[in-house]
Fold:
Amino acid sequence: MDNIFEKSIKQLHSIHLPDNVANEIIKLGKPVYNYLLVKIDAPSLSEYQIINLLRILYQMRYYNIEQFINKVFSFTQDDRINVRSTASWLAICLFRACSCLTKEFNELNNIPLHRERLIKLIHNSLAMGLHQSVREQVETFIEQKI
Structure:
């Protein structure tokens, strides 16, 4: 099964996430999620592979949301602006989604998406530099949350 996962990861070296590849990976479920969560830290992956893996893992996040949040938060501090920008955007999306859902699902209150930690991380990613469109979203988010 690892060969199937590896083959899929190689196809993610693209500026755009191929829908058919993403869908095939997502269909594999929790085993591929767990594999990708570890594999995303491999130094051999390209910037685009990491970005596309983050996007796929975002779609699969409910398998282990706590692990995923920690992974996204760590990538908000990445040296590569493309990875950092993607992770910062996804962190804000996670925060917004969890904020809306916790009103309906009390069990989501235990998710470690602490506002103070997120604000600190995205302030730092902002100082490190983000793409224009993400920077604007981060600045708006910070203004709304403080």
Q: What stands out?
A: The chain has two domains: 1-63, 65-146. The CA atoms of residues 1 and 32 lie 9 Å apart. The mean pLDDT is 85. The two ends are 46 Å apart (CA to CA).
